[in-house]
Fold beta-glucosidase.
Amino acid sequence: MNDSQLTSLLNKMTLHEKVGQLVQLATPFFKGASDQGQITGPMQDMGIGHDDIENTGSVLGASGAKETINIQKKHMEDHRLGLPLLFMSDIVHGFRTIFPVPLAIGCSWDLELAEKSASLAAKEAAVSGVHVTFAPMVDLSREPRWGRVMEATGEDTCLNSAFARSFVRGFQGDLQQDAYKVASCVKHFAAYGAPEGGRDYNTVDMSEWMLRESYLPAYKAALDEGCEMVMTAFNILNGIPSTGNKKLMRDLLRDEWNFDGVLISDWGAVKELIPHGVAENEKESAQKALEAGVDIEMMTSCYFKHVGSLVEEARLEESMIDEAVLRILRLKNKLGLFENPFREANEADEETFILAPEHRKAARELAAKSVVMLKNEEALPLQKNKKAALIGPFAANTDILGPWSWGGSAEDTVTLYTGMKQHLNADDLLVAKGSGIETGTEQQLREALQTASEAEVIVVGLGEHSDMSGEAGSRADIRLPEIQLELLKQLKSLGKPVIAVLFNGRPLDVRDIVHHADAVLEAWYPGTEGGNAIADILFGDVNPSGKLSMSFPFSVGQVPIYYNQFNTGRPKDAPDAQIRFVSQYLDIPNEALFPFGYGLSYNTYHYSNISLSTEQITPAEKLTVHVDVKNTGSMAGEEIVQLYIRDLVGEVVRPLKELKDFTKITLQPGEAKTVEFTITESQLRYYHPDLDYKSDPGEFEVFVGPNSRDVQARKFKLVNA
Ligand code: GLC
């Protein structure tokens, strides 16, 4: 349908029918749902009637070709105008084939594989009847205490923006041309990743300058890639809840960024304007959210109950309702739902595509590239003829899919034990739990030590269970539970090589782990093929190449800690720095334990001959940077070469360094390559005090290296034409 046909459809609708399009309910409300009628908890007092449900515009959480076709059929039979539902679900890092959590994918620095993971997830979801995914989540975060750091790709604006574009391309592609795609919905707008104290849903307060410089670009990148929807964040931003924030939603998102897609609230966030204290009741919540431009209310009933009277009392213009409904009808139209309301839901295709070998293979490859080797003192790779003991709560644990993996299943998941079994003779792999995640018994410990004592090398699987991470999963203490650290210490006392494999959703305080283990692999929540991917690295079939996309603090006392900090007026490492009166802690270092961009390989890579094509450029010119990188190891491997820039003097303070580009190269043993980067004036721009986004003439430093710390620097100038 064209716009005028959509408008004439809109004009046929009653006000109640229009309001129905502005509401999203979970599957239990709908006829034909497998969990129909299981209205429990807060859902019971939503006061939703049958005539409301018959007019509802979208459904949250349904999947499965049979179920979604069933629900759609029954809904359209009941709807006076036969309007189809939109089916929306959280497919963040996989649908049935679960890929590593996005923070892990961020550590792969592999944009192509990230895009592929989203594309495969979209294919599995589309044939299961899903139309929209609530992804990518691009909330930049410098807060490892926050449970949802696992859901985005880390602390850096440039890297997060690049992944945002890749994920949107993978999920959504060209909705009207490409098969097996779903509309994407970037979230959570905005700055949800900066809650005070790292406590989920907590206050976010920052300058417009910091917001625009660091936190907003990844959302914008997703929208520039064509992302169809935006989801509001739970948090307040500078005193106003995002979901009722006209400045953020209308002025910035819609007017400045020209976003005319669908804006959906997060679950219950419209009604939460009441506890936030900016709305007296649900009626005022409905008014404020609509005035802020929120098209769809997710899982509360303020719109159903009050929009009619708000319009009748002239507190809301019906034209505002029409605008919101038209955006939703346009999305349904773009998805082809008026011609084919079942879209690509197809049971035979589900059989073909879900957990297909190609999907598992991609999941295994991406999981291996997402693993970051933090330490290796000649303990890895393992030899296939040596007896190994596999110990710990994650030795054979299927809880390695991570949060937002509701479509995945334990029986499809490859554990570390299953993965390692592929590489060793049966009697060369001994296994014992050793402890639970947070508790353990003396007997478990004894059995573990006994088992380990019979082996030549010990692999210990440690970590957080997945509900210690994710939404509402904030932790003030970011170490592993004491019982696990004690297990590690006792295993080390046996005097054999100990390799720690970590399964977790946040940067941890890993000091004790690094102290006791001879090698440490950060495996995150690696997904369905996690056990195979980690075993591929343990036994050297894959050379680790992952690099941290989020700093690992020395301790939680440093948080928020991130590589692109400002120098302060009293930098601790200045040549003339005083002993005491500098920016420092008395009890811990300033630096992260492991910095952004850090990761080891079985090789070493030698960087040399960094050179610039010129020492100054005008705004119209480009500067190229060359660096030679040599693989001085004995294995082929991939190296992520990083380019950072520092603006030495600005009208506002400028970070000590900022990632501006990166590339991943493959090098055979002994092979060297010259890597080239291009720097343009646009990469030198920043937000000035008046929020004007531009560059200044002046001196810059360019840094190239394997991470944000071990870099080589050169200088250049930007001069006026
Ligand atoms: C949750 C999350 C959001 C998700 C939504 C629907 O509360 O904050 O990311 O998309 O509800 O499940």
Observations:
- Residues 90, 134, 187, 266-267, 471 surround alpha-D-glucopyranose (CB under 6 Å).
- The longest strand covers residues 637-647.
- The radius of gyration is 26 Å.
